[in-house]
Amino acid sequence: MSFLGIIKLAFISLGRNKLRSFLTALGIIIGVTSVVAMVALGQGAYFSVQDNISRMGTNLIMVIPGSTSSRGSFGPRGSANTLTPEDADAIAISCPSVAAVSPLVRNNGQAVFGNRNWSTSVLGVNESYLEVSSREIEQGRYFTLTEIRGGHKVCVIGQTVAMQLFGNMDPIGQTIRFKRIPLTVVGVLKARGETAMGGDQDDTMLLPFTVVQRRLLGITHVNMINVSARDPELMESAKEEISQLLRRRHRIRPGDDDDFFIRTQDDIAEMAGSTLAILGLLLGSVASVSLMVGGIGIMNIMLVSVTERTREIGIRMAIGAKTRDILYQFLVEAVTLSSLGGIVGIGGGIGLARLMGHFVQFEPLVSVTSIVVSFLFSGAVGIFFGLYPAWKASQLDPIEAFRFE
Predict the structure, then answer these.
(1) What's the predicted TM-score (pTM) here?
(2) Which end of the chain is more exposed for a tag (fewer CB within 10 A), N or C?
(3) Average pLDDT, whole number, for the chain?
(4) Cβ neighbours, 10 Å, residue 395
């Protein structure tokens, strides 16, 4: 019998028990749907995080204070007070690979305007912050150098803060009270949206770092220094220049550990990418278990089918069917079940991924690679779990099979 005839006969055999064939393929359908959807979720999260990291700034380098140490116990990174505004000024002046520098001082609290209030975060920054962080002013203006050095009580607010405090009112020139300090709104930032983790990048207020330091916190250090390299190819040079400069300024002896950490966008992207890659692999592996269960279901039904059709197999062998014809027939039936289940599962996975997109803060990404791999894997499952029942059917004794009741 030709291979085309074997395929036709396999479809006829499967069509005799449509409901059973569907229920057998259902395990594969669920498995492929799960794999496609979970991989899409993992890839969507990965690219969303990478995009958010790339929007943090242009050629961004972050200088973070070191850890506190007390009686052999170390605090988390950033817990020490080792960085100062003077360090930021020195980096801007003495590091040729650096384009712009901004110290950062953080605070949180309640912003009040009239009878409205909103809990938000405050960033104390300098005149270079917009360039370093790749942010833009949509309305009004940014701080002047005089306002920053003089500690003027002015602020630039994000879109979320503007909407919560002012609604449709023009915020420019209005006065916000933050921890009893009156702040004049001079500008509104252009919207940036949410991060992959759901954080609102527009729920923020920018103040001159001198105001946050002196009036809000009463400190002389900064929480972080953000640096923008002149060119992506100069990132490593900028890191080395910053490291050497800060070691000299902080009088760190050769061989001693730094009292600061330097991280770039690429470092953050690599760490986030590794974590999300592991998460995606875990999600895909868990979903693949259902594919294996579906394959076991195919093997079980095919073994039952061999038993039910023993007499049919004997008749076919008696009229000239060869061993390989019987083997191919049952193997094709198993592969057909798994492949059709794979096709339906791919459609279900795409639909499920789109549905999940409404409940997460990023768009799940269904790639052609995941579709092709899922389909090929479903076919492989059919071959693997259908091979034994097909072999068992082909090894039946024609005489015994013919007499089987």
Answers:
(1) 0.61
(2) C
(3) 81
(4) 10
